[in-house]
Write a structure and sequence with these properties.
By secondary structure, this protein is mainly alpha-helical. It is 79% helix and 0% strand.
Length: 253
């Protein structure tokens, strides 16, 4: 295969892949629209509210699983499933710590995926990347210190302080490793996820007054982050499948 055949094959393959990926995302967009249309009050926890909230992320998990296979359960697909579990738990205030634990596992699985060989070719560093790292860790550390006095006033402070501290560490680690991949969608997904969770935490622990559109901001950024991470992981996997065979064909002639 000469270089012109390779370019034509690559372009055609990308167009087909992009269209198929868009179609596979239609359930996510539909479920997200249903969530915002119904907008079930947080004061009315129910199985319906849990299902409506978790459905968009579950659809992304199935999409990633379809494209990347069963191994992705130890990566992004598994992270999405645990995120959906966290969504369900957080519907009921009594399951708050269980929900945090579920999201913590999701971040660990995202980290595992971002460290995989599919991203290794993008893992070189530069001064710009180091600056982004510093901003992420400075923001997370500053946010935790800002929340600390409120956390210490809680009756459950002995549990809450280390749990929130540990979760914040996993959150910023996930965002850092997302930036390390240098895959734009994954980078943005990790950063937006961090913004979403810190905004939620500031309101949840009464560090700031509940914003007028605080819940909308949290949920829009949350769903956007999950979408970016899911699509980024799928496209990273498809890129590794496309270019490796093409390079063999080019070399072999």
């Amino acid at each position: 295969m000469d270089i012109f055949d390779m370019d034509a094959y690559d372009l055609k393959h990308r167009r087909i892949t992009s269209w198929a990926l868009f179609v596979s995302l239609l359930p996510f967009f539909a479920f997200t629209a249903v969530y915002f249309y119904l907008w079930i009050p947080e004061s009315e926890p129910s199985l319906l509210a849990a299902a409506v909230k978790a459905a968009p992320v579950l659809s992304l998990a199935l999409m990633v699983l379809y494209y990347n296979g069963g191994w992705s359960l130890l990566g992004v697909a598994g992270g999405l499933l645990f995120s959906a579990g966290g969504d369900i738990c957080l519907i009921w205030p009594n399951f708050f710590f269980l929900g945090m634990g579920s999201f913590a596992v999701a971040h660990v699985l995202y980290c595992i995926s971002f460290l995989s060989s599919r991203y290794s070719s993008h893992s070189s560093t530069s001064y710009t990347i180091y600056i982004i790292y510093a901003v992420l860790w400075g923001t997370a550390g500053g946010a935790f210190l800002y929340m600390l006095p409120s956390l210490q006033k809680s009756p459950e402070s002995k549990v809450l302080v280390p749990v929130v501290g540990g979760y914040t560490f996993l959150l910023v680690l996930m965002a850092t490793l997302g930036v390390r991949t240098r895959h734009l969608l994954v980078m943005l997904g990790g950063i937006v996820f961090m913004v979403s969770d810190l905004t939620l935490a500031m309101q949840q622990f009464k560090v700031i007054e509940h914003l007028e559109y605080g819940r909308q901001i949290v949920m829009v950024t949350y769903y956007l982050a999950q979408l970016l991470i899911a699509v980024g992981d799928v496209t990273a996997n498809k890129e590794s499948e496309i270019y490796w065979p093409l390079s063999h064909k080019f070399v072999s002639g």
